[in-house]
Design a protein that fits this description.
heterodimer, A: 391 residues, abc type-2 transporter like fold, 2 domains, four-stranded mixed β-sheet, 14 helices, B: 387 residues, alpha/beta, 16 helices
Chain lengths: 391, 387
């Protein structure tokens, strides 16, 4: 019994020593400080500033009015009054309008056919043609919803005028959940924030590993700054060090940044902080796995940086996960950010509870355990290769 | 000088072959990423958004709405919910991206002209599925209302054909130019694949230049090029230019050849564009290296810029709508000009004349950095590695 207590206290002491030493290593390495502090502090601000205008308003559109009647001009005025569209002028022919488009003076062309006014007067169906530039889908989305709304509104208006019946038999109301303003930053930033946490952790940890490796190369396989400790204490001690560093950062990123920029933030802070705990640990252990692949401080970046794009897409933020093939869903399942993004968005933007996010939460703990075991095994295996005679 | 360039190129090729990281970053990652995007986005549109319907009325009319909803291409009724709270709970769990609510006594009120309200909820925290659900719901809500009007007016004795017109007097014929399927892969792959290539060019260029500083081999490098910094750079970067251009053209062949994405211009235009884009991006990395001749800092900075350029070049959010002080940065990134050339040439098929400035800017990138080269040479002649 006494032996056991002695062992535990010895293990705890070495855990503490690893934790303390890792702190020193983090703060004495300028590269790691950049990735652990500067990047998570500045990136959320820069990203949000890029997308902060939220909504694309007044996209320039040219009109080719072949009808030239009161009703066609009225329709044009209504188009101009929509939030998404701004009429920049009348082109005399479609060719002229296409030239404007080629010069990037407009991104859409509205063509009103000759018989538009006549058809309206006769009570027949008339059509207008809208050509839309497809380089950016957000513009197309704006055009489409503006034109559909307009077509419905004109319908109601003409009906009232002709038959004097405002017989709208049914009201319909549309309620937008989560991103209520339909803004771009409000949609993309909450997910990006979580991804930034994971990537900065992986980059920083990989760089620490590269540094240790370089020290080993210079010292015949021994890292003079490593603390002699059992493998479990080494891994957990380091993980706890990174975890301690990230607690204030996480509060800043997930709590303050959405408030600064008025992004959706209706989640319960206790819920998402509890949720983020396994996310941090699984990211830390994933970073330690990456660390194994890195031999040099700088090459870590060459490998890790591009993975941000992969993880962004696998998380389902831009392309929904239900539409992915089984392969990508399964690979996505192995990435902490996939579950982190999903859970945090639901808690933060939809006001879901931790209980509703049971699956992501448990998956994150599962990933934490799996990655810990992988790190532990590889640590034990490398220990055999380079025996430790240093104290 | 030609001899010096050739010697440096030979030396560089040996260096490239020696380290696995170059094979990985120059060949494997760009190709793997292209395949990743094309495979992930292969469906083009994420149809069948999981949604739910709450039918509190259970009448002929409400069941008809349910049937038309499930017949929609964009949405799928994945769940039946019995109450608003249940549906909201499912949204919170992420099972559904929206739901459609038909209130109690819906049919009765509609027929007796008491104007019931149907409501639909779309979860926009996921943009694409949220929008698709919204569009599907809206169509059904409008056509339901229309059908009732139609029935009433026909009963009043108005010609059914005329009623049809009344429901929608103005039809908007929508023409998405050269992407009539609104295929997301055409849009995303064409912007993200060059983005990844740019990121890898930035990383490899700055890594290969500054690691000479770290290893202290930069003096030898300059000497191989007979002391000319321009020759040394050309000799070093030319093999990389060739490799990256081949990879870029291969990725283009995946996009336009294998996947038949819109290519409404002479393929040579896009090939020229990617070669110029590779050179301009390399020049950008040389620019950073001359400003900060330090391996770690240079690589950190180009990776930060490389990642940010996915957002700041305005693939997803237009530069004109960004804050001026932010949007201005998009103009110093070569990726933006390649993207604009792609839009003008491959997507819209405009005459080359309209893209002339983008080509000129891409050509200008390597010229603009020439004055900085003496600074880089000074740094390379006195290599110091600060860990």
């Amino acid at each position: 019994m006494r032996h056991l207590i002695h062992n535990i206290s010895k293990w705890t002491t070495s855990l503490y020593r690893v934790w303390r030493r890792e702190f020193r290593l983090v703060f004495t390495d300028a590269g790691v400080v950049i990735f652990f502090f500067l990047l998570p502090t500045l990136y959320p601000l820069v990203y949000t500033l890029i997308y902060n205008p939220e909504i694309v308003r007044d996209i320039p559109v040219a009109v080719v009015d072949n009808c030239r009647t009161t009703s066609s001009r009225e329709f044009t005025r209504m188009v101009d009054a929509t939030e998404a569209i701004k009429i920049i002028g009348y082109a005399s022919t479609l060719n002229e309008a296409r030239q404007w488009h080629a010069q990037k003076a407009c991104y859409g062309i509205l063509e009103i056919p000759e018989d538009y006014g006549k058809n309206i007067g006769r009570g027949e169906q008339s059509s207008v043609i809208f050509y839309s530039d497809m380089s950016l889908l957000i513009r197309y989305r704006g055009f489409l919803s503006a034109m559909t709304d307009l077509s419905l509104a004109t319908g109601t208006k003409i009906r009232q005028k002709l038959y004097n019946s405002d017989s709208q038999p049914i009201n319909s109301s549309s309620i937008i959940l989560g991103d209520t303003t339909q803004g771009f930053a409000s949609f993309v930033i909450p997910g990006i924030l979580v991804l930034i946490i994971q990537q900065s952790l992986i980059l920083g940890i990989a760089m620490l590993g590269g540094g240790a490796n370089e020290r080993r190369l210079m010292n015949r396989g021994i890292d003079p700054l490593a603390v002699k400790a059992p493998a479990t204490a080494t891994i957990i001690g380091k993980a706890l060090c990174y975890f301690t560093i990230y607690i204030p950062l996480v509060i800043y990123i997930l709590y303050f940044v959405p408030i600064f920029f008025n992004l959706p933030n209706i989640g319960n802070i206790v819920d998402y902080l509890l949720f983020i705990v396994p996310f941090l640990f699984s990211s830390i252990f994933l970073g330690m796995i990456f660390q194994r692949a890195v031999t040099e401080r700088e090459s870590s970046m060459l490998i890790v940086v591009f993975s941000s794009v992969v993880f962004l897409f696998l998380s389902g933020l831009t392309w929904p996960r239900y539409a992915m093939s089984k392969l990508w869903i399964w690979i996505g399942n192995c990435i902490p950010a996939t579950w982190g993004v999903e859970g945090f968005i639901r808690i933060n933007s939809n006001g879901a509870t931790l209980e509703q996010n049971t699956l992501p939460y448990l998956m994150l703990w599962l990933l934490t355990c799996c990655y810990f075991i992988i790190v532990l095994l590889s640590e034990l295996l490398t220990k055999v290769k380079t025996p430790y005679n240093h104290s | 000088m030609i001899l010096g360039i050739l010697e440096t190129a030979k030396r560089e090729m040996q260096r490239l072959v020696c380290r696995r990281i170059y094979l990985l970053t120059m060949v494997v990652i760009p190709i793997a990423m292209s395949l990743f995007f094309l495979s992930l986005l292969n469906p083009g549109l994420p149809l069948k958004v999981p949604t739910a319907i709450i039918d509190l009325d259970n009448s002929t009319m409400s069941r008809k709405i349910t049937r038309s909803l499930s017949a929609m291409e964009t949405i799928e009724i994945a769940e039946q919910a019995t109450s608003f709270n249940e549906a909201m709970d499912k949204v919170g769990r992420g099972d559904i991206f929206g739901f459609f609510l038909i209130p109690e006594d819906f049919e009765q009120e509609a027929i007796s002209n008491r104007t019931p309200t149907i409501s639909y909820y779309s979860n926009l925290t996921y943009f694409i599925p949220g929008t698709l659900a919204f569009k599907g719901f809206k169509t059904i809500a409008v056509s339901t209302s229309g059908n009732i009007v139609l029935t009433t007016l026909v009963a009043e004795g108005i010609n059914p054909q005329q009623v049809e017109t009344l429901l929608q007097p103005v039809v908007v014929q929508d023409h998405p130019i050269h992407n009539p399927w609104t295929n997301y892969s055409i849009y995303l792959s064409n912007s993200f694949i060059p983005g990844v290539i740019a990121l890898m060019i930035l990383l490899v260029t700055s890594f290969s230049i500054c690691s000479e500083l770290k290893q202290g081999s930069s003096i030898k490098w300059i000497k191989t090029a007979n002391g000319s910094i321009l020759g040394a750079l050309i000799g070093k970067l030319l093999p990389q230019t060739i490799i990256f251009s081949i990879i870029g053209i291969f990725c283009q062949s995946l996009l336009y050849g294998y996947n038949h994405f819109p290519l409404h211009c002479n393929p040579l235009v896009m090939i020229y564009a990617i070669i110029l884009f590779v050179i301009a991006t390399q020049a950008f990395a040389v620019f950073i290296c001359s400003l900060i001749p330090n391996l770690r800092l240079a690589v950190s900075i180009v990776s930060l810029i490389g990642i940010l350029s996915f957002s700041i070049t305005g693939f997803s959010f237009p530069v004109e709508s960004m804050y001026g002080a932010i949007g201005i940065f998009s103009y110093i990134i070569p990726l933006r000009y390649y993207f604009l050339i792609y839009v003008d040439q491959a997507l819209n098929g405009l005459p080359l004349y309209y893209s002339r400035w983008y080509f000129i800017v891409l050509i200008a990138f390597p010229c603009v950095i020439l004055p900085l080269l003496p600074r880089l040479k000074r740094a390379l002649s006195h290599p110091v590695y600060i860990p």
